[in-house]
Give the backbone structure.
Amino acid sequence: MKIKTFKDACKKLKRKDVLPDFSMLPEKHQKAFLALFQLVTIIEAINGKWSANWNDSSQTKYYPWFRIEASEEKPSGFSVSCTGYDYTYSATLVGSRLVLKTSADAMYVAKQFEDLYKDWLLIL
């Protein structure tokens, strides 16, 4: 099953596709927490039974990598980088819940769910 939406991820994980209420947070942070919740769920569904082993420095872990550069072609300034993903062995720049098993999965997530990453990473 190809995960195209949060609803697809919930279906694969056999969870209700109910979003938590973050209204107790300041308004400027609500969107970010909601996006992070959805990304964690989506990535869990895409990874299946695989999970990162942080005690195994030989295990490659991938995550999307974005650039923030405004231009006339892309005024939002947010786009997947030229490689689209990165990997790490023993150090990471992202939370462990957001790593993926393959570079192809990282590229897919970066493109398919760019808006969620934007909501999570940027204060607009």
